[in-house]
Amino acid sequence: MNGSLHSDVVDIKLKRGPAGLGFNIVGGVDQQYVVNDSGIYVSKIKEDGAAALDGRLQEGDKILAINGVVLEDQTHKATVDLFRTSGEDVELRVLKKSPRHMNGPTGSQPDHQSSLPYLGILAALVGAAATVAFIYMRRK
């Protein structure tokens, strides 16, 4: 990527296999996947498909162009049609996923960390209940 201003942009060449390119997409101007972004994103990498065997394309990556055709302002259907007619050798220009641009969990933090404050509250409540029970039992 000589002259690229964004270091997270990569070119990936895939050879279409018996099952196609081996990944699913979401997004488009008619089906926004990311808030305020009508781009096309990789939603699933299929096992043993061309993309999985290559290993560079990942779920959450944004596809910027297919064989030099820029996907900006494309509908989902137009992009699917472009993939279908792109031939056996397909070159993708991809913006690697960035956790701050994705909807939902991104794997940047383990899920159990978000429950830690609740465990502390639960422990405090159990302790308070035990104290109340102890005091109640002593009065009898």
TrEMBL record:
InterPro entries: PDZ, PDZ_sf, Synaptic_Scaffolding_LAP-MAGUK. The keyword Transmembrane helix applies. GO terms for molecular function: protein kinase binding. One of its GO terms (biological process) is receptor localization to synapse. Residues 11-98 form the PDZ domain. Its main location: mitochondrion. The chain crosses the membrane at residues 116-137. Keywords: Membrane, Mitochondrion, Mitochondrion outer membrane, Transmembrane, Transmembrane helix. The keyword Mitochondrion applies. It is found in: Mitochondrion outer membrane. It comes from the Eukaryota. It holds the Pfam family PDZ. One of its GO terms (cellular component) is cell junction. PANTHER family: DISCS LARGE, DISKS LARGE 1 TUMOR SUPPRESSOR PROTEIN. Binds (via the PDZ domain) to isoform 2A of SYNJ2 (via the unique motif in the C-terminus). Interacts (via C-terminus) with RALBP1. Interacts (via PDZ domain) with ACVR2A (via C-terminus) and ACVR2B (via C-terminus). Forms a ternary complex with ACVR2A and RALBP1. Interacts with MAPK12. Interacts with DLL1; enhances DLL1 protein stability, and promotes notch signaling in endothelial cells. This is Synaptojanin-2-binding protein. The lineage of its organism: Eukaryota, Metazoa, Chordata, Craniata, Vertebrata.
